[in-house]
Design a protein that fits this description.
By secondary structure, the chain is α/β, with parallel strands linked by helices. The chain has 39 helices and 15 strands.
Length: 871
């Protein structure tokens, strides 16, 4: 290899020659940001030429060239291994100068054309000194031929040419004219390049890898494309036009990369990570001598599977109604983690190994596997590994659908059976597990199972999940519940256990109207609903514990009919998984907190007595002594197990930061409710390869960041607590919610507020504050936002704290604050008995109108606080 400093003019002028951008290079991609910087550098050099100063030239970068296989002694051709963006940009700038002066100085325009842009005596593609990669070739050629040629609209090439035409018009401003030919001279003789020229024997691909395999410039898909077309010296053009370009045009770069990864998985590699795609595929090709025919076969297979993959991305493209319905529901679920299994099924169907009926049946097992696990609160970790293993582990001695049923039913897959599903529907807090769109889809499917003759159009209906018995019950609700309590349980504990169970949930478009009203008032609204499940609720005389359990049993029957069960005898999940959840959440208790037997039971969907018995008889449970009675006292039945360290319980609690009141009870302000326990386990159940993160990106290695995390890490690189907040928010909510929260914070800071970040290994919060100190009366915290699943993922109004801060010691002002928040669609805060921190889900901020209303409310709050003492 040889390297020397050169000028653009010296590189491209002289005898006829051509610089070819290979097919393996990505398309032209400079944006206005790079173009503006280049233009600034060009004008600076033009001004130096005008003044006659002997200043140094401007270094533009390197260009790596290698002899083309089509090279001729009389017509040198060079492959542009690196530097195509620079060469293309400078050529477009010169084409723009030529066209700018064509009418006034036609001879100079012709000179520019012949010296830098064309080979005058050549025809066809040989006429162009620079020949871009095929996707850019037609548009680039149109601009080089001249502005009167037919030109395709849009694209980066057109944008760059248009940029230079605009800038040249600005430069011709009579008020401050700039010599256009000086600008041409600056481009051709003041911008230096380092030209690195390879010999024919040099390994061009290794040179390219050393320049680009850093993960910064090119994606895995880019690198693999480059590798493939470098090995297609004679068939490259045909394969590119016939297969690659249509595939590339139909998928985004990220989708194309995912398809390449799926092709490896379907071919039996059940361990490859997406970020290792390039190295893994390269290794497979280099195990022996690979011919052009073999690489062509690989690309043709990728092209064929690309058509199938697009049906996963766009279910409406699927012709069969039953298969289309399953694909649509799995897309709604955001179940990208299942793509290896789904693409396998479509692939096998196309090969004739199963028909559409069996394809739909097999997809029903995939859907059931996800839905039943969510309803039974099975953590989502390992889902990517489970489905990535499907192509390699599918039984060979069974039909495809039956083999998938058996594989997913294996003991270590934890697919809940009918008995467990029925129990969890009755007892588990359904509303506090999974994601909002998943819970909504379950209720939608249950409603569809009634097969009403005039079904609701769920695509257009603005439905939200409604608690029939409200989350903040009034006195009438508590009096009714008190009729149902047994074994000394309080009405509040019974409410805590049942409020989030599936039997108490429905869908409605009138959430705000239903609010926290007594059941008699809700009946009328539900009776007029278009949903069959609501009309059935409306026919019930009362809505207490028995009615909720009875409806849960009915919905469980429907769920069992909708979502097939695993095969018996292959293996089933152990019920001890519930106690594992208890152990995990107790181990995650933050310093200075405690919980009650009732809270832990409500979190588990169990009973307080069963929780007490388990903790009393299970050694080694971390923080078991921090589970107290609802009054904050150590249970009379509490005993240390022989394996535990023992000691005075109250002393141990004090060491853990738990405070005690004058009557000897643990401070109720430090008590974690069932909902708050759910927020702790939500973090523990969300490792880097969980379903939710996989839905955002490809399978990642532990510790690596999602796309959203990378984006927000750039914004908040200097604040680890802020970064932690947005990382968790992006892991649990949509990017729309993340952007909405970011906009909220920006608006709050514009109002003069500040964000106070609090975080540790298990929780993260952002407090909206006014004032710069924490001295009482001089600062105020009105709201906190907590990312995460379940109880987290909400905005919490500091209602109890506000009561001690002027001017909000006036309850009318606090109530007005809640009333304004309730104007947001999807927000339903109890105004008469809101509790210490009423809350609403962060996802409501995705709607533009909701953000506008919240902004007005925050302005109102700021104005009230700033006027304290003056009214």
């Amino acid at each position: 290899m040889q390297a020397k400093e050169t000028l653009f003019a010296d590189l491209v002028q002289g005898r006829a020659q051509q610089f070819q951008v290979p097919l393996y290079q990505r398309t032209y991609s400079w944006t206005e940001k790079q173009l503006r910087q280049l233009w600034t550098d060009i004008l600076e050099q033009a001004e130096l030429l005008e003044s006659g100063e002997k200043a140094s030239t401007h270094f533009l970068g390197s260009v790596v060239l290698a002899p083309s296989p089509q090279n001729e002694a009389t017509f040198p051709r060079w492959l542009v291994v690196d530097g195509q963006q620079r060469l293309t940009t400078l050529s477009l700038a010169l084409a723009a100068i030529r066209d700018h002066i064509a009418d006034g100085e036609p001879d100079e325009a012709e000179r520019i054309d012949e010296e830098y842009l064309i080979n005058k005596r050549k025809n066809g593609s040989d006429r162009f000194r620079l020949l871009p990669t095929q996707a850019d070739r037609a548009q680039f050629a149109a601009y080089v031929r001249g502005p009167l040629s037919e030109q395709a609209a849009g694209g980066a090439v057109a944008a760059a040419y248009g940029f230079f035409r605009r800038k040249l018009v600005e430069a011709a401003d009579p008020a401050a004219p700039q010599d256009v030919l000086r600008i041409e001279e600056a481009i051709t003789s003041r911008l230096t390049l380092v030209a690195v020229t390879a010999e024919r024997a040099d390994n061009v691909h290794r040179i390219f890898e050393s320049l680009n395999n850093t993960g910064l410039k090119l994606s895995q898909a880019d690198l693999l494309r480059n590798y493939l077309f470098m090995r297609l010296p004679t068939r490259g053009d045909h394969i590119y036009e016939t297969y690659w370009l249509p595939l590339q045009d139909s998928l985004s770069n990220d989708e194309l990369e995912q398809l390449m990864w799926l092709q490896l998985v379907l071919d039996g590699d059940d361990r490859v990570r997406r970020q290792d795609l390039y190295a893994a595929q390269q290794q497979r090709f280099e195990r022996g001598e690979v011919s052009e025919a073999e690489i062509e076969a690989y690309i043709k297979e990728l092209y064929r599977r690309g058509a199938l993959f697009r049906r996963l991305l766009h279910p409406e493209k699927e012709a069969n109604k039953a298969v289309r319905a399953h694909l649509h529901r799995l897309d709604t679920w955001q179940a990208q983690v299942t793509y290896p299994a789904l693409l396998l099924l479509l692939d096998r169907r196309e090969r004739g190994e199963l028909d559409s009926t069996d394809t739909a049946r097999a997809m029903s097992y995939v859907e059931s596997f996800l839905v039943r696990r969510m309803m039974c609160r099975v953590p989502t970790n390992n889902l990517n590994r489970i489905f990535q293993a499907v192509p390699g582990q599918l039984p060979l001695d069974l039909p495809v659908a039956d083999g998938l049923h058996q594989l997913l039913s294996a003991e270590n897959r934890f697919w809940p059976d009918d008995d467990e599903l029925r129990e969890k529907v009755r007892t588990a807090p359904f509303y506090k597990f999974g994601r909002g769109h998943q819970r909504k889809m379950v209720l939608q499917r249950l409603e569809e199972s009634y097969e009403h003759p005039e079904p609701v159009d769920f695509a257009t209906a603005q439905l939200t999940i409604e608690h029939v018995m409200p989350q903040s019950p009034g006195d009438e609700w508590l009096r009714m519940l008190s009729e149902d309590v047994v074994d000394g349980e309080s009405a509040q504990d019974l409410h805590s256990r049942l409020q989030h169970t599936l039997g108490n949930l429905t869908l409605t478009a009138v959430n705000a109207e239903l609010s926290n009203h007594p059941f008699e008032r809700k009946q009328g609204l539900l009776q007029g609903s278009h949903l069959e499940m609501n009309r059935r609720i409306a026919t019930t005389e009362r809505w207490g514990a028995d009615e909720i359990r009875e409806r849960a049993d009915e919905l469980a029957d429907r769920a069992i009919a909708l979502w097939p069960a695993p095969l018996r005898g292959v293996g089933r999940a152990e019920r001890s998984r519930d106690w594992n959840l208890a152990h995990q959440v107790l181990a995650a208790l933050p310093h200075g907190t405690w919980t009650s037997y009732g809270d832990l039971a409500a979190f588990l969907g169990s009973g307080a007595q069963a929780v007490g018995n388990h903790l009393a008889n299970t050694p080694g449970v971390a923080n078991a002594y921090r589970v107290l009675t609802s009054e904050g006292k150590v249970s009379d039945g509490f005993r240390w197990t022989p394996q535990d360290a023992g000691g005075d319980v109250r002393s141990r609690l004090s060491d853990d930061g738990v405070r005690f009141t004058a009557n000897g009870a643990a401070d109720p302000a430090q008590r974690l409710s069932a909902d708050e326990l759910a927020s702790l386990i939500a973090e523990a159940d969300d490792p880097a390869d969980s379903e939710e993160e996989t839905a955002q990106s490809a399978p990642e290695s532990q510790g690596e960041e999602t796309r959203a995390d990378q984006f927000y890490a750039q914004l908040v690189a200097e604040n680890s607590d802020e970064r932690r907040f947005f990382r968790r928010l992006a892991a649990h909510d949509s990017l729309e919610t993340v952007d909405a929260v970011r906009a909220l914070f920006t608006h709050w800071e514009e109002l003069g507020g500040s964000i106070h970040w609090v975080g540790n290994d298990t929780m993260s919060s952002a407090f909206l504050k006014l004032g710069e100190t924490i001295a009482p009366g001089r600062s105020i915290s009105l709201m906190s936002l907590m990312p995460g699943g379940g109880w987290a993922g909400s905005a919490h109004v500091s209602f109890q704290v506000l009561a001690a801060q002027e001017p909000f010691t006036d309850r009318a002002l606090r109530t007005e604050f809640l009333r304004r928040l309730n104007e947001l669609e999807g927000v339903d805060l109890q105004e008469t008995n809101p509790g210490p921190d009423p809350r609403f889900e962060l996802s409501v901020l995705e709607k533009d109108r909701n953000r506008e209303l919240l902004g007005e409310t925050l302005t109102w709050f700021r104005d009230r606080w700033e006027s304290r003492g003056t009214d």
